[in-house]
Amino acid sequence: MNIIETSIPGVVIIEPRIFNDERGYFYESFSQREFEKMVLKTVFIQDNESKSSYGVLRGLHFQKGKYSQSKMVSCVKGQVLDVAVDIRKGSPYFGKWVSCLLSDENHRCFFIPRGFAHGFSVLSKVAVFQYKCDNYYAPDKEGAILWNDPSLNINWQIPDDKIILSEKDLKHPLLKDCDCLFDYKEDLYK
């Protein structure tokens, strides 16, 4: 496994070692031991999968307080642009974002620690997206930021008139109006 640092410490891209031959390929998609040695000591307890068509944009979501989640995400079919936004008040990276192109061809994973909002846009005809979480989903503790917040200026790599959003994702607050952000000094892994 190869770890690629991003411009925000703690948010990393994970590239597996892929073994190709005439039969196809093999790679280890996850090793708890290697992940803890190279990234962070945490235990993933829930796996999720979604299927979406071109233009679907999901995000920017997070879980509040003790329900916060780290996520390790991948795209097993198609291609997505995955985005992590630092929402830790007091962080030198507050309001900054990083992205990673995930696909069934590059087999990359993207690790997003607690204290970040997360979203993705589907760039292929269809995408199957998988993610591991280190905390259980609590629907009543969900927070979010508006996908097109002008202060973030995220390029989702889809024309605005092609973006498909849920009713819920159309109504989130701007980052400056969100009252449920994280404290940079807080230990989010307790």
Quickly describe the structure.
The protein has one helix at residues 32-38, and strands at 2-5, 12-15, 19-21, 24-26, 46-53, 57-63, 71-77, 79-86, 88-89, 97-103, 109-112, 116-122, 126-133, 142-144, 182-183. By secondary structure, it is mainly beta.
User: Which structural class do the helices and strands define?
Assistant: mainly beta
Provide the helix percentage: under 10%
Shape: globular
Average pLDDT metric = 94
Q: β content, as a range?
A: 35-45%
* Main sheet makeup: 6 strands, antiparallel
Task: Describe the protein's architecture and organization.
It is a single chain. This protein has 190 residues and is mostly beta strands. It has one domain (44-178): Jelly Rolls (Sandwich), CATH 2.60.120.10. The protein has 1 helix and 15 strands, in the order E-E-E-E-H-E-E-E-E-E-E-E-E-E-E-E. It has one helix spanning 32-38; strands spanning 2-5, 12-15, 19-21, 24-26, 46-53, 57-63, 71-77, 79-86, 88-89, 97-103, 109-112, 116-122, 126-133, 142-144, 182-183. It has a 6-stranded antiparallel β-sheet, with no helix packed on it. It has a 5-stranded antiparallel β-sheet with strand order 10-8-12-6-14, with no helix packed on it. Strands 3-4 form a two-stranded antiparallel sheet.
